[in-house]
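Chapter summary example: a protein plus 3-isopropylmalic acid.
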Amino acid sequence: MAKYKIALLPGDGIGKDVMDSARIVLDKLNLDAEYKYGDIGWEFWKNEGDPLPERTIQLLKETDCCLFGAITSKPKEEAEKELIPELRGKGFTYFSPIVRLRQEFNLRTNLRPCKAYPGNPLNYRDDIDLVVFRENTEGLYSGVEFHPVPYELKKMLEKLHPKARKFEKVSTKDIALSCRIFTRQACQDIVRDAFEYARDHGYKSVTVVEKPNVIRETSGLMVREARKIAEDYPGIELWETNVDAMCMWLVKNPQDYGVLVSSNMFGDIISDLSAQLVGGLGFAYSGNIGDDYAVFEPTHGSAPKYGGQYKVNPMAMILSVKLMLDWLGEKEMASALESAVAGVIKEGKVRTYDMGGSNSSIEVAEAVALRL
Ligand code: IPM
Ligand code: MG
C-alpha cells in the first residue's frame, strides 16, 4: 500500500492544465502516493446543481490531503441561468466550492508564501520574501448574509444599536447585510500559526493587518488577541498596520515585511497584492490547512479562455505541491522541488508567455522534473 492517498481535483478551465503539469513533477519525485481524481466545479453545478458533490467530500475524507486546481465562480443570478433547464428554479444556490471545502473541513489557516525567485523578470524586486496568513473560515466569508434583511432582524438591530437607526426608513428589500463574524478562537489560532511559522522559519516580524480604528469590534478583537499572543514570542516583533496603509507599504517597501496575518477578506486582498510583487498569479500558491486535513492550491482562477491550451504558468501549482510535501513532512523532497523551480526560473530558458516565453505548461513542468 502506498504511504499517502492524495486527492486530485483539477476543476475548471486551466485547472486541468496545471494539474497535468503538477503530475509530471509528482511522478518524477516518485512520492509514494496513490492519486485519486475527483469531481469539482462548474460542470457539476450545471448538471447536478452542486459544484462540490457529496462523492467528492467522501473522497477527500478517505485521503490524507488534496491538490486542487481552479474553479469558475459566478454571481448568484448568472449561476442560476447556467443550470440545465430541469434544475432551474428548484432552489439550487451556487456557493463557491473552495470556500465550502475550507469550512466543511475546518481548514482554518490559509498560508500564502510570496517569495521572489531570482531571475524572474516579473519580480517587482528580487529581495521580497513574505508570507501571508489568512484566516480561512470566518469573517466576511462566514456566509451569514441577507437580502432582503428579515424584518425581525432589522427591528432588533435598530433596538440594540443606535447606528442601525439610520436605516429605519429603508425598506427591508432595499438593504443587504453580510455579517463579518470573528471568534476569539479563530483570531488566536491564525495569529499563533503566524508566530509559529515566523519562529520556525527565522522571520523577525509578524504584522497584523486589520482596521481597528474603524471596524472596532472585529478588527479590534484580532489586534487585541495578537498583542497577547505576541508576548509568547519575545524574539519576534509584532507590527500593527491598517489594511489600506498596508497596500501602500507593500508597494513601497515590500522587502521590510516577513509574516503578515489577517482576517479572511483582507487576507484575500493583500495576498493578491503580494503575489503580484513576485510574478503575479502564476506564482501565487497556497495551503488551506486544518488540524488533520489540508488542501493545496494555486490562488489563480480558472481562466476559461485559456483552458486546455496548456499555455499558463504551472509554477503556482508546482509550488503548491512543494507546500504539500512540507506539510506531509517530506522536507527533503520539498526543498529539492523548490531548488528545481528556482533553477528553472534563474536559467530563464523555459518560460510560459507571462514571463515572456513561448513554452507550454507541460514544458515548464518537464524542465522542473529534469532537475529532480
Ligand atoms: C482565493 C480566491 C477565492 C477566495 C475565490 C475563488 C472564492 O480569490 O482563494 O483567494 O476569495 O478565497
Ligand atoms: Mg483571492
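Key point: The longest strand covers residues 4-11.
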